[in-house]
Amino acid sequence: MKLRSLSLFTLMLLSYTVSMAQSKHVVTLGQPDNIYSNILKEERTIWIQVPESAAAPTNHPNTYPVVYVLDGGVHFLSVCAVINQLSPGSLPEMIVVGIANSKNRTRDLTPTNVKEARGSSEWVKESGGGERFTDFIAQELIPYIDTTYPTASNKTFVGHSFGGLLVVNTLLNRPELFNNYIAIDPSLWWDNEVLTRDVTAKLSGEKYKNRSLFLSISNPLPPDTEKDIDVLLKDTSMNTEGLRATHRFSKTVSEATNSALQFKYTYYENEDHGTIPLISTYDGMRFLFSWYKMSGTLVDIITDPTATAAALRQGFNKRFEMLSRRLGYEVYPEEEILNNLGYMFMANAPEKSLAFLQMAIEYFPKNANGYDSMSDYYESQEDLKNAILYSEKAFAISGAAYHKNKLDKLKSK
């Protein structure tokens, strides 16, 4: 690979990712909604982010994976921020659904009822409603989101603390409900580590194929004290109870050799229970979608001056076939990146330029932009007839003054 070519391509991709992150989510960030639950016998507030590209005209429906976030009033905006920053370069664009849990978190998010926890009985009287709350998500919330918003089948479940406990409980008892799970410093000490007891048996078999879990562990001690996890695991005080329980669970899952689950856990020695959610969401998303970013092989094909247009098409087809297989629905190239690549190679590799612009028109035949770019291509090749033809197509779609002026200039030559 030529470093200069790679550098130019990388800069183009960076510019594309940054521009998308800046412009695509401003209008739709945090739309509030409400849903009445017959299961919970109460109304529940949710917050929704839908990518702006959902409204883009294409020859295929824009559908998106969905991320469901527990404690949405606290974590919704930070999860949106991570996804908006990383998509579409490192993650697919996604719909984010934040679920309010402020009224009775202990009831909603704990899987079993206990009489006493952490030296008190009063605050756990209503514990054990986690399965019923999961019924609400599975039977009412997900169907509502699927019928109201442009969703794809791929789903991710994110929770912190008690929310992380429910995420793990859902993975172990209803793995079919979500594809991906992020458990942020989960409260796996709950009920004498009930979820760790039979985790090895539950994880065996094929039902965890194409399922992934990222789990994070915080340092419960003040920042100017002990950080070494091996030392903390030997401590027997209440301070490290949560860390020891979560680490035991993580080691048990890691050693479950008969499981198809994709699993990673990370100990953050410099993060406490309150600061760990943001970095966990970032690292978790990078782990869950580590295969999404454009591969070096495809970058090599794009930047190879000897690569043919057929090789480019084959490379793109292989990438999007892989993405479709991984995500469980049909995935298409982004129009803007095809367009940018068309301009990138227009002067020095016109065959490549033409291939990218043809793909842009094939995938997005209702967008004027592809035809306008194709007009620029033919003008650069001194083919005035085809430049006018594609300029007429762009104007016919948009009716914009810009395209009319451009067409008039071409006809006057």
Compact overview of the structure:
The protein is an alpha/beta fold and 413 residues long. It folds into 2 domains: 265 residues, 3-Layer(aba) Sandwich (Rossmann fold), CATH 3.40.50; 116 residues, Tetratricopeptide repeat domain (Serine Threonine Protein Phosphatase 5, Tetratricopeptide repeat, Alpha Horseshoe). It contains 17 helices and 8 strands.
For the record, give the distance between the C-alpha atoms at the N and C termini, rounded to a whole number. 41 Å
Listing every helix as H and every strand as E from the N terminus to the C terminus, the arrangement reads HEEEHEHHEHEHHEHHEHHHHHHHH
Instruction: State the strand order across the main sheet.
Output: 1-2-4-3-5-6-7-8
User: How much β-strand is present in the residues?
Assistant: 5-15%
Structural class of the helix and strand makeup?
A: alpha/beta
Say which CATH homologous superfamily of the largest domain is assigned.
Alpha/Beta hydrolase fold, catalytic domain
- CATH classification, class level of the largest domain: Alpha Beta
Pick out the low-confidence regions: 1-8, 14-27
Number of strands: 8
Number of helices: 17
Nearest-angstrom radius of gyration?
A: 25 Å
> Could you say how many structural domains there are in total?
2
> Roughly how much helix do the residues carry, as a percent range?
40-55%
* Major β-sheet profile: 8 strands, mixed
Overall pLDDT = 90
User: Which fold name is given in CATH as the topology of the largest domain?
Assistant: Rossmann fold
